[in-house]
Amino acid sequence: TAVANGRNGKVTVEVTIASDKIAAVEVVKHSETAIISEPAFERVPKNIVENQSLQMDAISGATFTRNAIIAATADAIEQAGGDASEWKNREGQHTEAGETIEKTADVIVVGGGGAGLAAAVSAIDQGASVILIEKTSSLGGNTLLSGGVLNAADPEWQAEAPADKGEAEELENWMNMDVESFPEEYQETFKTLQSQIKQYLAGSKDYLFDSTELHIIQTYYYGARTGLDGTKIYGTFELVKNLAENGLPTVNWLAEKGIEWQKNVSEPVGAMWRRGHTPTMPKGQEYTIKLGQSILNSGNEYILETKAKSLIVEDGKVVGVEAEQSNGTKVVLHANKGVILTTGGYGSNTAMVQEYNNYWKNIPDNSKTTNASGSTGDGIIMATAIGADLTGMGFAQMMPVSDTKTGDLFTGLIPRFASSYIFVNKEGRRFVDEGSERDALSKAAFNQTDGVFYMIADADIAEEAKWLTDPEVEVENGRAYKADTLEELAELIKVDPATLVEEMEKYNSYVDSGVDPEFGKASFLQKVDVPPYYATPRSPAIHHTMGGLVIDVDTHVLAKDGSIISGLYAAGEVTGGIHAGNRLGGNAIADIFVNGRIAGANAAKGN
């Protein structure tokens, strides 16, 4: 038995050796991301046994897991008295390029994350034949690395949730704002919102208020930003309106596809309101599994480890895609009706983020990212090569609550509700309203010692965090700290015990009063007073690239002159214009499924 570090923590492997040969390799314990890691779990042990070698092809998207299994097996070989270096130099598995693959379907979808899966299933709903290609070894993309929370105003459902302290005051703030302070195209929506709020405030105020109009206004307001060069940006009204109005119909559509929703309302970090719909399975697994299976059940197909290289254009219309598989095999796909780009953003392409950056004072070369390895801007590069226009490229979002070592979002203890977040810096002090926008939180974090802070939790908050991770496993893997008292926790994270205790006592008093006189936190959920206590180290990492291809509400990709590029559609993070300079938490999942669904339907009809 041997242990090596994977992407999310320790990977434990049992190796059976008989007569100087490896008879079996089995991964018996791990914390790797479901679905993404499965190709490595399936292929690596099999190849080691079949080839009696530790040399094998890379597995796109599962590199850390692959390397961990190989490293642990090498350790086991050494334990058994063998020479691991000799095993690494043995001739191993290696696949050669095959003959060119050529296929035709009504719709070709490029990218197998949530937007691509939605687009494919939606096109199939319209009777179209579909081929989806994905450059990594598994479906899911960034959707699998998300919390899976989909923002959609659903007032009837939300009215079943009690109001939180501070929410009525926040609504009153909207009432006090001047309609003239909003862009002209948003003013009628804001007037409607104010009348809705007025009616709510005149009533009991004991339930959670929401409306499509509030979603529209919050998406606009918290996304409006100014770049380093003075450029002002905000969401295109028709796209924002389209997102908010189609949120609930899309939730219902996903339910028809087998997605089961939890009963509670969620609010991820930086969401600014409780309107999140969360699947029963953790992260984005349920979307990936059920929509992926829906493609296969319909008789259509998806092809993995196949990277799109260029778009095929004939007589001014996009009619297909040229691609290449990981072993070098060429793939040519012809589209009878349309090509949909759902390749995601460019958050794993640091050089591209740096090239376009117009918001952050500094993006270091070694910046970490929450993104899947496939998010390198491929769709943007291919589309601009044929004349597509771009918008908002200077604005990338940092995720403030990322793993300090890997950039991963969901390690340690991450509560379901942003109102449960309590941040302290290395001096043990709170330093920000934890319910702020993501860019505000990230800027505040960068200003702390080493750009690092700790999320503090007690037993109740740890129970809430189980929606994503097992707190005890996170402690075991060294991604969180645990202690029976706040004083002991302070010792573990090397802060002054008296300071941490004082800060938590103040915070608890703010929860009681519903007022945070220091930082103005508006929404509180619970105190920090039930042992044991936990601390999760966090720092900002590149998370979401708001800029991308210019689209219209029908998801057509537009050229620089504003005309439609015939045959080409796009959805999800590859596009721009919705989130502007700062995205609300939960709006990305709404975006990919709302617009993926629209893209699939329109491409299938050739509209």
Protein traits:
five-stranded antiparallel β-sheet; 19 helices; 33% helix; 20% strand
Write up this protein.
It is a single chain. The protein contains 19 helices and 22 strands. The chain is of the alpha+beta class. Strands 4, 5, 10, 11, 12, 13, 21 and 22 form an eight-stranded mixed beta sheet that branches. Strands 15, 16, 17, 18 and 19 form a five-stranded antiparallel beta sheet that branches. It has a three-stranded antiparallel beta sheet with strand order 1-2-3. The mean pLDDT is 96.
β-sheet strand percentage: 15-25%
The quaternary state of the protein chains shown equals single chain
Head-to-tail CA distance between termini: 58 Å
Largest sheet: 8 strands, mixed
Mean pLDDT: 96
Give the strand tally: 22
Cα shape = globular
- Structural class, from helix and strand content? alpha+beta
Residue windows where pLDDT falls under 50 for at least 5 positions:
none
What Rg, in angstroms, do the CA atoms define?
25 Å
Share of residues in helices: 25-40%
What is the helix tally? 19
